[in-house]
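Researcher: Here's my situation. A collaborator sent me these components and asked whether they could plausibly form a single complex. I don't have experimental data yet, so a predicted model of the whole assembly would be a useful starting point for our discussion.
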Amino acid sequence: MPESQRNIQQKHDMFRGQQSTLIQTHSIGVIPPFQDGARIALENTQLRRNLHKATQTIRAKRAAVVDEMPDWEPLREAGRALKQRVLRHLDDYLLELEASVQRAGGQVHWARDADEANRIITDLVRGYGAKQVVKVKSITTDEVHLNNSLQSIGVEVTETDLAELIIQLADERSSHILVPAIHKNRAEIRELFIRKFGLEELSDSPKELAEAARLHLRRKFLSAEVGISGANFAVAETGTVCVVESEGNGRMCTTLPPVLITLMGIEKVVPSMDDLGVFMQLLPRSSTGERMNPYNSLWTGVTRGDGPQHFHLVLLDNGRTRVLADEIGRQTLYCIRCSACLNVCPVYSRTGGHAYHSVYPGPIGAILTPQLVGVENAPSLPYASSLCGACYEVCPVKINIPEVLIHLRGEVVRHQQDHDGLRGRADPENVAMKTLAYLFADPARYERAQKLGRVGQWPLARGGSIQWLPGALAGWTAMRDLKPMPKQTFREWWRTTRG
Amino acid sequence: MSTGKEAILSSIRAALRDVPAAEKPSDVPVSRDYLKHSETPREELVFLFMERVAEYKATVRRVSEEALRAAITEACHMRGVGRLVVPPDLPQEWEPESVELLRDEGLSHEQLDRSDGVLTGCALGIAQTGTIVLDGGEVQGRRAITLLPDYHLCVVREEQIVGLVPEAFAHLAYTVGEGGRPITLISGPSATSDIELSRVEGVHGPRTLEVLVVG
């Protein structure tokens, strides 16, 4: 390997080995800048090939199954409106959900933050005397780092979604909401399985790799004492919880172990079964690009003689009420985690998920993470977008992501001005904006500035463009040319022709 | 525990200061202009259902009421099924010939795992998506029996097929309301696309799904 490639590889390995960023409302550090992670990711050509293939494939599948729906737009509107209704009355719906789950024989717990959720769940697992836990893919449990907590009390935790298993075995982080191991190719997965499962021979065909995982996990499913899941939806009226999946690992985890614990963000509640029918049309087509994903499990408390006889639903806040309090940012909580916005995003499809340093990558992550942890702790994420709007167009619940991005950029700047003292106020962008605001406020002042600019630009304007700006302004021209001011401005022209 | 609950509820109420106190959930408009009933004639619905099930790489065949038992027997023989799990209320007319039936009156997970397949009916079929709905009702048994065996043979009656997803959920609201039975929606055999997005049929659930449409 040439020196330069080796350096990139080393940097990439370092990057992958980093501890995943904690999304916890307490003890938060500042999330590393997006642009640093993006630069490392962009240098990895294998990653870019994997990402390109994956995002293009899912995009095409989604487009095909969305186009065949004559009522897609009315469905999106209904989905959006239902989420709006739920969030504006979230307290009522959560209380209704709690009562319904209890009536159906389940228990409900409330967790203010990651620590509290982990404490509730580890206490439950310990209380049942369980040594083995099987998990359905759940971003919410990743968000609170539940696996670490369970392992710390000596419980063996097994991720059972194929991609999550790959990530767990490789000790890496998810890079996509739907397909977390999108950054790994078959050769890498083959080597990992040979090493971790102690196999002598294994081909790199996806079929054979899936079979190896099936055999490895079957024993775990049959012996685990506790299953842990997230929830895609929970119905307030009936207490029905829904998990959407493909491989059957979700059915296994929610059916076979005698105890089932579900961790759910408070925003996942929907009013009625009819309303769930709306989301069950929006989610599969937006997410995997299927008319319906292979398996959906819906359970209502406990059922005698069928499945787990102990069911615990843990409702998690962990920053969500902070998002709820922002009238523009609130719509972020409509998200049903389909990942359609990732696949169409020109930024995500090049950098992949790791650069976002959060379990929520892509456009939705760029607005959700800063709100969950506070913009001051993720100030680069609202800028990880070209504002092209493709995400808004595909969002099945019509989250106006560009609007929230711009709103959050404003928050970032305001925070810098308020808290960064002199350094914040002396920030070149801040100074430039303040100066512009001053100049634009008065017509005479504005025209004087134009005249001054025309004189001042002569050392920089070359052949009809400004290709280089000095000092703090150099960033602007690093990637693009600047148009010089014309010989005659519009206002001057107007005066000579009409005035 | 109640402290967590009170704290979250009061954070929510503080966050929603902009919502007028008098506003009720039903005051937030939800337009439901999406399709709720299919206008497609029944015969076409059956055809669409079969087409969509087949697209998931499941085998699907249409048989008459009289030929059902023979079709079940044939399917079992074709797959080499020797030990077939069946729900406790399997009708006698469905019992295949020369196959050992494991009637689920409390079979262990290991017994289910070692069987060759399972035979059930269903609650509903959804034509729009090629989905089979199990709700633990008649001839369906508990969830584990359709999960651990590697082969699932499912009998769908023509009159059980509905057109659209909302029609199915209208039925399911009733199922869930009346005793809270668990529901499983099945659309083809289990599958994964987690490795380079190439689809592999058959991971943890039954790797083979076969559907007989009766009527």
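Model: Some features of this prediction you could bring to your collaborator: Chain B has a mean pLDDT of 94. Chain B touches chain A through 74 residues (CB under 8 Å).
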